Amino acid sequence: QVQFVESGGALVQAGGSLRLSCAASGFTFSTYAMSWYRQAPGTERELVAGITHDGSSTTYADSVKGRFTISRDNAKNTVYLEMNSLKPEDTAVYYCSAATWIVQYVGPAFGSWGQGTQVTVSS
User: Fold this and answer.
1) Which residue of 33, 38, 81, 84 sits 20 to 30 Å from the alpha carbon of 63, by its own alpha carbon?
2) Cα(4)–Cα(41) distance, rounded to whole angstroms?
3) Neighbour order of strands in the sheet with 68-73
């Protein structure tokens, strides 16, 4: 059974930093790309960042480039999202997902999602 457990969300002031973690299980983690998505109230879930199975390539939404960094530890089946210079518009529930990457990022590999972790940035 594929499972994702996100953690690390919190209430922070604008300009602050957070590090999100996602522990994955139920599949061979080291063979899948991984990604972070976010969903704010009243909006669709959007891709924030993706990383290939070996960490050699990454992709970011334009809105977070230069502020967020995705990384992974295949020994721990965990993917991370380092978030710096946070803005109120980063407020959302953040989710991780296994992903398909063929030359470039394609999309989520499975239909399941974790419970997400809430990030709230105050102005």
Assistant:
1) 33
2) 21
3) 3-7, 18-25, 78-83, 68-73
What token pair was written down for 66? 């230069």
By the 8 A CB rule, do 83 and 92 touch? no
Q: Which residues contact 65 (CB under 8 A, 6 or more apart)?
A: none
Alpha helices in 1-123 (DSSP H): none
CB crowding 89-116: b at 16 or more within 10 Å, else e: ebbbbbbbbbbebeeebeebbeeebbeb
* Phi, psi (rounded to 5 degrees) for 58: -135, 160
Cα–Cα distance, 101 to 85 (Å, whole number): 28
Task: Decide the pairing of beta strands 11-13 and 117-122.
Answer: parallel
Q: Which residues 6+ apart lie within 8 Å of 41 measured at CB? A: none
